[in-house]
Write a structure and sequence with these properties.
Strand content: 5-15%
Number of domains: 1
Number of helices: 17
Largest sheet: 5 strands, parallel
Radius of gyration: 21 Å
Distance between the termini: 18 Å
Helix content: 25-40%
Length: 443
């Protein structure tokens, strides 16, 4: 099996009853062009993180998919036309889990990313595949974090003096006179797994104008919410496998680039790191066909193809070359070489797959056609990460900005990616939107 996301089995338990969802959200892939976070009160930041972390507990297998109001809001916001009417006709479901719907870090539009709560929310919204970004601690244990050095923006580590002191760079307040922003740099490799498990997760964000730790932590972007950011439960990679399995979903772990020099401490090589991630699935007897290992490092994918071919055959090469100057043309030209290495699935950001034709309609890009011509399947990232779309959609819509002027255009973009680019699946910060579409279209 080499990654036919939309043809993967949809058997397994359906996802559980859920809470009413609010609008909003989007997260940053650390990409240029995304909005600056709004500032929030320092008292709220302090109050949010006093609770002690809860240990992960086995989740009961979900029984129903619950989408909440956001997909319906987006459909009603669309301009009138055949697609809107088609989506309106299937408004009453029934809705089922779909592998076309991929939970990006869970459901991080409103839940702290890579937490038990975020994964459960994504599964309840029908995401058939859930993502754990994988990095390692000081004692070489694998954990779910978007980057090795993001604890200062995604957890309460700065509010714990004993752990904050271990950060690569402890908190430094903003200096308005010198014009320097507030900063900190706290890495999973700064602390042990036992210390990592004492932390609370929060919504990703920081206030660059802060002069106190509490102020720095109060940086959640305005289009997100802190409603569920009381004390998110951090998970190890192994715990994420157990949790996602209990939710009846499949896995797409991303091997994150280390921030520390490799080999770490002299003998922990990139290859050992890549192997350790796969070994944790093997130890828990997860079928290789349920795992879509990812990396921005092509060498990681090639390693899996050579050493773990049952996993490597559907490993995903995440392609961010398009974000570098001249990188788009390089990526397009290299498609035959990528395929010749044995790669089956390539995954660029959404904007790289679409462009506008002479009439202003969204159509597949030269990148999309080159990937298809080389025999590569495609997935893409990230929907529901841009905030309100009235002003063009920002980074992830940059190639079609002139065609984007309302939130309903989320479905317009999604439809082109699914029907014309023919992607196998789409990462989303709020999977309910993709699940709604996938069910309406039979994906």
């Amino acid at each position: 099996m080499h990654g036919k996301f939309r043809k993967l089995t949809t058997q397994g338990a359906l996802v559980a009853s859920w809470l009413l969802v609010t609008m909003g959200c989007a997260k940053s892939e650390r990409a240029a062009g995304e909005e600056e976070p709004s500032l929030m009160g320092e008292d709220l930041a302090s109050a949010r993180h006093v609770a002690r972390p809860r240990p992960p507990s086995p989740s009961r297998r979900p029984r129903s998919v619950q989408l909440g109001p956001r997909p319906y809001y987006l459909v009603e916001d669309m301009e009138d036309g055949p697609l809107k009417r088609e989506l309106q006709r299937c408004s009453e479901g029934p809705f089922r889990k779909s592998d076309f719907s991929i939970g990006h870090r869970g459901a991080c539009l409103e839940f702290p990313e890579h937490t038990k709560e975020s994964y459960e929310a994504a599964a309840r919204m029908g995401a058939g595949i859930l993502e754990c970004d994988v990095t390692f601690t000081k004692d070489r244990q694998l954990v779910c974090r978007h980057a090795q050095c993001d604890l200062h923006t995604t957890t309460n580590i700065l509010a714990i003096p004993a752990l904050s002191a271990k950060c690569t760079q402890p908190f430094q307040p903003a200096d308005p006179v010198a014009g320097t922003p507030a900063s900190a740099n706290c890495c999973t490799s700064d602390i042990t797994l036992a210390e990592f498990k004492t932390l609370c997760a929060k919504m990703d964000g920081a206030n660059p104008n802060a002069t106190t730790v509490a102020g720095y932590m109060a940086g959640t972007p305005a289009f997100r919410t802190d409603l569920y950011s009381t004390c998110g439960t951090l998970v190890t990679h192994k715990e994420s496998i157990e949790l996602i399995s209990s939710l009846g979903a499949k896995f797409t772990p991303e091997l994150k680039a280390p921030s520390v020099t490799m080999p770490y401490e002299g003998d922990y090589t990139q290859e050992r790191y890549a192997q350790q991630m796969i070994d944790e699935y093997k130890a828990l007897r997860i079928p290789p066909g349920h795992v879509f290992a990812q990396s921005f490092n092509l060498n990681d994918v090639v390693y899996w193809l050579g050493h773990e071919p049952r996993f490597g055959v559907q490993a995903v090469y995440l392609d961010d070359r398009v974000d570098a100057a001249g990188g788009y043309d390089i990526a397009v030209a290299s498609m035959p070489d990528i395929a010749a290495k044995g790669v089956k699935i390539i995954a660029p950001p959404m904007w790289a797959l679409v462009t506008l034709d002479a009439s202003g309609a969204i159509v597949p890009s030269t990148y999309a056609t080159a990937a298809r011509s080389a025999g590569l399947d495609i997935i893409t990232w990230t929907l529901e990460r841009s905030g309100p779309l009235a002003t063009g959609g920002g980074h992830y819509f940059q190639s079609v900005t002139r065609a984007i002027d309302n939130d309903g255009d989320t479905f317009t973009m999604l439809d082109v990616l699914a029907q014309k680019v023919k992607v196998l699946g789409i990462f989303s910060d709020w999977p309910a939107t993709v699940t709604y579409y996938a069910n309406c279209k039979g994906l």
